[in-house]
Each structure stands twice: as C-alpha cells, then as structure tokens.
Write a sequence for this structure.
C-alpha cells in the first residue's frame, strides 16, 4: 500500500516520531490530575499559557451581548442581529475581517511599546502560526532549497517548514558557552556547511523571543543577523509568537525595530523586502484552539501570494468576530498584557527557585512559557544516549514530561525545556517537589555508585599491595 | 515591486492560484456596481456565487434558543477555557460524532460514518489540497470529468505540483461520465508518460446540479479498482438534493460492493454549501484508508477548525429534531427556487440541464451564440454582465468542452432579487429572439445585404461593448469569493 500513497504520506517527515511527541503520548496514557490521578504524569512539555483565562472570561461575562452574534450597539440592543450571524457565516474573504486586522496590528504595535506601527493591510491571516510558517516557506523557497535555523529550536518546525514544502533546514549551532547566543561566526559556518551540501540558502528562520530558551534576542545578535542577511541577500523570517510573554528586562526588540535602529540601513534598503514576521494568539493570549496566526511583511508580492494561499487555512469568521471585539477595547488589551506578564514572571521565578533548591540551574531568561533547564550534571555521560536515559527516568520515576534538548536539536546533551504556564500553582509546586526528590535520589545514587567504585578500586589496590 | 518578485519562489509568482483569468470581469462588474434592492436596484446581480442563503432564519432561531452552544454567551462562557486551549488535531470528539451523524442523516441514514475517520481541514479547499499531498507526488495526475469547479485547478495543483487531466463529458448524453471517456483520458495520460493516481468526482455535480446514478457510480468504482487508482468523491452538495431521483453516496456503493478495495475510496465534505457556513471553514476528509486518515490528520495541523466553531457545530448538528427539520425545509426551499427559475426560463425557450441538486442550474444559451466558439460564449457573457447586469459563470470557466452553457446560482439571494433576476434574463432572451427574428425577415427580403444586416444585428446586441481586458486586481472569482464591499463587516470599525 506504501506506493499507493505519496512520498509525503508514507515517510516520517511529519516529524511526529521525535521524542518531543513521544513524551506527550506517555503523558496521555497516564495524565496527572490533582484529585483523580495525583500520581499521574505532569505535563511540562506543552508550551501553553493558562494563566489569564479569568481575565478573558470576565470580559466575556460583561460583554456577552456583544460577542454572541449581537452587534455592538452600545449595549442598548439585546436582540439578535439577524443579519450579523448571516454575514459572518457567509464571510470567507481571504483578506480577513478589517476590524480584526486593525486590532491585531494595534496589538502588535503595543507589544513593541508603540515604537513600531504595523499596517493592517500588510497582515495575512492564517490558521495558526503552523500555517503561517509553512505558507512563507512555499513563498520564499523552492523544494530542496534551505533555511538556516539557530539551535536549539521548536521541534514543530521540522514539520511546518519542511514536510510538504520540501525545504531543508540547516542548523546554526549555538552553544552554552555563550548562553546559546547567535553569533556571526556560527551563521557563516552554517552557510558554508550548506554550500558544501550543495544547498541554496534562501534565508534564516529565527524565533524571537526564543523557544526553547525563553530569552529575547539582544541588539547585537539582531545586528549580526541583519548584517548577514544583507550581505548574503537572503530573507529573515522572524517568528515573534512569544513577543507578548516578555515579563522581565531586557525588553523585547523585534526584527522591525532592530532594522529601524540599524546604523547602516536606510529606509528603502531592499532588506525591508526580505523581512517577514510570524505571529499568533496561541501563546500571548493562550488561545491555541482558535487557530489565529498571521504573516506580516512589507513585501507586497509576498502579501499577495500568501493571501491567496491562506485559502487553504482561513481563520473562522466566527472567531475573527469574537476576537475583534475582545481586542477592540484598548484598555482591556493593555490590562491583559500587563497582568499576564506579571503572572508569567511569578511562575518563572517559582520554577527557578524550585529548581535551584534541587541543585538545578536554568539559563537566565525573561520571556516565554518555559525555562531551559541544565541537567548536565545528572547525566551519566556527556552523550545523547545518556540524555535519553535521563529523560526516560524522569518520566517513569519523577512522572514528569519534559522536553529533552535533543528533540529541539540542541548540540549539547543535558538540557531540557520545562514549561510552567500550563498548570495551576499547586501542580507546579508538586512538580518542583518531584524534581527535587528525583535530583536528590539521582545524586545519592551517583554518590553510592561512586563510593562503591572507590571502594572496589581501593580493595583491588590493597590486594595488589 | 519587480525586485520583490525576484525573491519569491516559483509557486508564489506563477499563475497557479488561478486568479489571473478573464473571468474576473464578472466579479469586477459586480464589485463596482453591486445590486441592492433599495439602494442600487439597477446594479449587477450576483449569480456566480454558489452560496446557500435560504435557511438562515432557521439557524438564527436555533442559536437564540441555544445560547450554551456559544462560548461567548453567558450560558456558555464556562466552557471558554477548555475550548480555547484545545488544539488536538483529532478535534473535539463531540464535533466528530456530530459530523458523522449529520453526514449519515443527509444520506437518509442508508449508511453510517465512523467518527474516528472524520479528519478536519481548512474548508473543502484545504481538504482537496491535503488529498493531493497524500495521494500523489509532484508530476502525478488526477482525472476529473468536465465541466468541473474551477477552484480544483488551484486546490489540487498549485502548491502540490499535481496535474489535472480532463475526462470530457458531452451534452449529447447529458454530460454523463462514460467508460469510453474515462478510458480515453487514461490512455492519453499513459501515452504522455503521466502517472495517473486517481479520479476526482463531485457528486452532486458542480456546475451541473445533477447526481450520479447507481450504475454510473458502480462503473466508476469498477474503473478505479481495475486501474488500481484512488477515487476522491467531493460530496459537498449532498444535502442540496431537493427531489428525486434519490441521492446515492459513494458510501452506499461501498456497503454493497464487497469486492471494492476500500483503501482507494475517500470523501471530501464541508458545511459551506449544505448549511451555508463558508465563513466558518469546516472542511472534512473522510477516508476508508487508515494510512490516509493518519497522514491527513497530521496535515490537518495546517488548517484545523477553530474550536469555537467546532463547539457550535457539535451542539447544532447533534440536535436531531432541529437538523431533521432543517434538512427537509432546506430541500423544499431549494426545490421552490429551482422550479421558479426553470419554469420562468422555459417560457422564453431557454432550457437547462435537468437537475435535482446544487445551488445553481446549468443554463443552455447555445442558441444565442453567434457561432459555437469559446469567443462567442465570452462575447455573450460580457453582454449578460454589462447589459443584462447579471454575473453568471460561463461554461468555459468550468472547462466545458461545448460553448454556450452558463452556471446560474439562485440560492444566494432573497425572493425579490430572484424575481428581478428572472425578469432580466427573460427580457434579454426575448429581445435577442426578436432581433434575430427581425434580422431573418430582413435577410429574406434583402439577400444581397446579408452580411451588413448581421453586422447591424451584432452591433445592436452589443451596443457599446464594455469589454474589459483581463486585469490583475479584484482577487476573487468563483474560487475565493469575497463579501461585497457593501457588507457591513468589510467596513472597519472606528
């Protein structure tokens, strides 16, 4: 039957056999529940933001008349607007609801401290960032061509960027020796490697703030990247899906700001045609089920092509309407983002201190829904096999699903991404206790086996003597 | 910008999206002068858009009575968090069950559908592209009977690199799909060294509005089994069958034909036509092949249905008594519309292909063509748009092999607009007939001036031709329709 299906359907380029997804499967077999299954596996491999639903729910409770297919008539009308449901049900214009795009553009600007203004007409709505990234690849590269991508990176890119597009990803190795920062050297090295493999590099794909690191890219990193893209005349796709989750200093500098502030680049330089931003409401607003993604670009040809391609995954008009109402209140938007960031910081700090008391450190981070945790000292050897063993032990003994660094293509074993925003504080507390118990036991076991090794070598040397 | 274009891929810069075609004239004319009963009664009436607007009153009544189905209402807001967070590509179980139940109901409960085989997609548009990605490699081909929905050219070919090869159907036998036509298309592909991976049918047919009878369906199943190729059945219009003969779905054939290789059979469905919800993007792939279900489900990540919408639909479609009432009432209203139009047109001797389904009929204007060519069809079409002020779709846009046929949509307007549209068509045809009769009489008397008369007849029909050259604006036609500029949703809020 294999040859009856396409190559794409038959092989594993969908990326789902990676350990990233295997952990999920383990969790699904035995999911933790505070009351019903307190010894189950706690899911810490899912970068979801569940911290601020109460804010959205209370907005909905106050504005049910508006949101439930009723027109916004200053609260005076409480009867169903018969034309509104019909208009929404029939609305399949791939340019999207103008009111919705207007609010999205405003939101994006606010996240960047209003230092940048975005034009709603340059936004393309897509079914999640998943579709946005794939669509951009279809627009920017031929099958077989390549994008450079700093490691470690979000495992989903292997599917989104490569699967149906047949575009290749060439890793740009980042190392813990400089906190995994992106360097010019690393970019050049990756580019040379691509050329050696006879791959034509069309651009660089970055995620900023980064996943899985949880850091915002620095001004220097962004400048190095821009210099590189300018000199090679290639694209930059900047996935800024976590831009609203920056909870601590340094603040967020997006690719647009970096370009505006770049000393050598004037407005009108053709690099402006090669910068494309991906965004989504799945992380900042915690609404992954609604499938709201978008592409932003100054390149009109890209906007035109991507808009047509969005036909394959439009955003439900019902959802566009609901969100244009929620996001339409500027004050609510600001309140939500501020409160959400505050709660993320609290969670982050709770995890960092919890890990610290277990003798585990993390990469210093100021964004995202996760920490990049250093468990190298718990490896029995500095290998990916040891990392896999450790990961399996953490699932079976500590009953925690974390994401091993190898699933994120990290070049050094021992790092794990651990999410903190997809559970209650009580559950996080339980998770921290389990990690501590696990780490203590592992260290003790190591100590015991060290002592045993020491004892037997002393014994043998005694015998010799 | 020219420089910008050089940076893009071939897919992004070629015409595979299908929008650079001359058929945009119709949409442009409509966009620049859209009919409105009171505000613009002389405007162009949109009859090129296959939408089902006949039963919104029923749906709206249900929504008012079932606020819990919406996560935005006071009653439903408790579900908000769980729904907003749920991104599992299997979809809400209630959604899949409701879809499976609905699909069975629409087929008179002669078959059942397994919710575990229901896979989501970004509308039927996304479903077709996903099927092409799953079943074929770049360069492979699907056979498709003509005339067919123009959107297939984009959906199945654009980003996939897959080809579409026509199986030519003719009016002489009411455009039925014959074994000979299938074999001919298949042979042609073999001779050109093209690998045929499947056959794509739409049943009920767009643009014909007809359904395939049991024998033909069985014949197609035999054909694909013999050639060991896939059969994709787009059943998007299944609930629009408004009168006998009874609809037979491929699912029914599969129940009866135990010899058929089930791994070759796949259904594409959507709620855009049967329920009139194109804006909600509810596309479904239903495959009898486990590997395809698996693969398509992974690909559905690129076009999942919003969980807010899944929740609404799950609630609505599982309300048995409502859905029974809806399906039956929708059929009645479609039948009534269809009847009014076809009877009206018969009064002016305009026929249409006899049909019992769809949101349109296939109108026969061959006798009004100057000559039996595509150019003549386009000329006539431009007159209909610019003079008669109706946007209908010319058969050539559906790859019809014979000029003179037009698809006319009738379910996307209210009764009053429908009456006006019918009056316009009748008036146009009567005038054209009168002119032709006068011209013939004239010709009989003045034989020597034959050619001059015809030229005058032409000019009086065409008046000042407002033939617009194809242009690259106005992004939508039959493929990606957009709301008229008059839609309140298109005016941004301040």
């Amino acid at each position: 039957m294999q040859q009856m299906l396409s190559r794409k359907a038959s092989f594993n380029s969908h990326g789902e056999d990676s350990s990233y997804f295997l952990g999920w499967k383990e969790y699904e077999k035995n999911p933790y529940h505070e009351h019903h299954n307190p010894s189950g596996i706690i899911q810490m491999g899912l970068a979801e933001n569940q911290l601020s639903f109460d804010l959205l729910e209370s907005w909905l409770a106050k504005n049910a008349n508006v949101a439930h297919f009723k027109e916004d008539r200053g609260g005076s009308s409480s009867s169903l607007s018969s034309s509104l449901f019909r208009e929404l049900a029939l609305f399949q214009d791939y340019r999207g609801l103008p009111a919705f795009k207007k609010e999205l553009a405003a939101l994006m600007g606010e996240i960047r401290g209003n230092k940048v203004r975005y034009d709603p007409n340059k936004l393309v709505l897509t079914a999640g960032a998943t579709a946005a990234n794939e669509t951009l690849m279809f627009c920017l590269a031929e099958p077989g061509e390549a994008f450079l991508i700093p490691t470690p990176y979000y495992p989903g890119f292997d599917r989104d960027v490569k699967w149906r597009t047949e575009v290749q990803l060439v890793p740009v190795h980042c190392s813990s020796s400089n906190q995994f920062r992106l360097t010019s050297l690393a970019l050049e090295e990756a580019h040379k490697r691509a050329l050696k493999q006879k791959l034509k590099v069309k651009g660089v794909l970055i995620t900023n703030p980064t996943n899985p690191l949880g850091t915002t890219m620095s001004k220097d990193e962004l400048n190095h990247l821009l210099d590189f893209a300018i000199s090679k005349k290639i694209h930059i796709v900047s996935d800024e899906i976590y831009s609203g989750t920056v909870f601590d200093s340094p603040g967020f500098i997006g690719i647009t700001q970096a370009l505006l502030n770049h000393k050598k680049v004037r407005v009108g330089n053709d690099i402006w045609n090669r910068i494309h931003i991906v965004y989504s409401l799945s992380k900042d607003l915690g609404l992954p089920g609604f499938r709201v993604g978008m592409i932003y670009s100054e390149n009109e040809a890209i906007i035109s092509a991507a808009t047509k391609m969005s036909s394959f995954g439009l955003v439900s008009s019902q959802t566009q309407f609901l969100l244009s109402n929620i996001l339409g209140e500027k004050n609510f938007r600001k309140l939500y983002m501020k409160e959400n960031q505050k709660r993320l910081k609290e969670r982050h700090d709770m995890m960092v201190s919890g890990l610290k008391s277990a003798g585990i450190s993390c990469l210093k981070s100021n964004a995202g829904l996760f920490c990049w945790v250093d468990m190298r000292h718990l490896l029995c050897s500095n290998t990916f096999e040891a990392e896999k063993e450790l990961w399996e032990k953490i699932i079976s003994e500590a009953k925690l699903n974390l994401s091993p660094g190898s699933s994120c293509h990290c070049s050094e074993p021992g790092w794990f991404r651990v999410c903190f925003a997809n559970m209650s504080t009580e559950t996080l507390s339980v998770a921290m206790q389990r990690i501590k118990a696990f780490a203590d036991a592992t260290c003790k076991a190591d100590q015991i086996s060290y002592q045993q090794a020491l004892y037997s070598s002393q014994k043998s040397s005694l015998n010799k003597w | 910008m020219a420089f910008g274009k050089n940076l893009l891929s071939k897919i992004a810069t070629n015409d595979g999206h299908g929008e650079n075609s001359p058929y945009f004239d119709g949409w442009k004319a409509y966009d620049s002068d859209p009919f409105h009963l009171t505000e613009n009664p002389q405007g162009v009436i949109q009859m090129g858009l296959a939408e089902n607007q006949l039963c919104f009153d029923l749906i709206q009544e249900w929504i008012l009575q079932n606020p819990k189905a919406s996560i935005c209402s006071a009653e439903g807001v408790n579900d908000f968090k769980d729904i907003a967070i749920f991104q599992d590509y299997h979809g809400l179980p209630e959604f899949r069950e409701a879809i499976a139940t609905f699909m069975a109901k629409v087929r008179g409960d002669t078959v059942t559908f397994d919710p575990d085989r229901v896979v989501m997609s970004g509308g039927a548009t996304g479903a077709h592209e996903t099927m092409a990605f799953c079943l074929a490699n770049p360069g492979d081909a699907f056979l498709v009977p003509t005339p067919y929905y123009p959107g297939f050219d984009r959906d199945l070919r654009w980003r996939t690199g897959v080809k579409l090869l026509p199986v030519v159907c003719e009016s002489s036998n009411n455009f039925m799909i014959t074994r000979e036509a299938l074999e001919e298309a298949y042979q042609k592909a073999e001779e050109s060294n093209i690998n045929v991976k499947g056959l794509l049918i739409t049943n009920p047919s767009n643009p014909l509005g007809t359904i395939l009878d049991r024998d033909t369906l069985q014949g197609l199943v035999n054909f694909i089994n013999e050639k060991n190729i896939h059969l994709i059945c787009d059943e998007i219009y299944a609930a629009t069958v408004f009168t006998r003969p009874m609809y037979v779905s491929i699912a029914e054939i599969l129940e009866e034909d135990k010899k058929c290789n089930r791994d070759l059979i796949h259904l594409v469905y959507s709620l855009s036509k049967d329920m009139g919800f194109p804006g909600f993007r509810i596309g479904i792939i239903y495959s009898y092949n486990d590997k395809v279900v698996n693969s398509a489900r992974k690909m559905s990540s690129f076009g999942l249905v919003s969980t807010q919408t899944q929740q609404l639909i799950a609630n609505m479609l599982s309300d048995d008594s409502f859905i029974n009432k809806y399906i039956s009432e929708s059929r009645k209203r479609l039948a009534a519309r269809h009847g009014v139009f076809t009877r009206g047109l018969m009064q002016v001797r305009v026929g249409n292909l006899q049909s019992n389904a769809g949101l349109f009929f296939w109108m026969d204007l061959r006798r009004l063509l100057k000559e039996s060519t595509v150019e003549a069809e386009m000329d006539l079409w431009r007159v209909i748009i610019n003079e008669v002020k109706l946007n209908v779709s010319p058969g050539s846009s559906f790859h019809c092999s014979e000029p003179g046929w037009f698809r006319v949509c009738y379910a996307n307007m209210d009764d009053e607009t429908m009456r006006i549209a019918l009056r316009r068509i009748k008036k146009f045809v009567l005038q054209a007939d009168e002119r032709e009769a006068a011209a013939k009489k004239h010709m009989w008397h003045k034989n020597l001036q034959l050619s001059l008369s015809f030229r005058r007849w032409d000019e009086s029909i065409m008046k000042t031709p407002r033939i617009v050259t194809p242009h690259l604006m106005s992004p939508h036609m039959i493929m990606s329709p957009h709301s008229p500029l008059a839609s309140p949703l298109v005016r941004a809020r301040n």
Remarks:
- The first helix of chain A runs from residue 7 to 10.
- The longest strand of chain A covers residues 201-207.
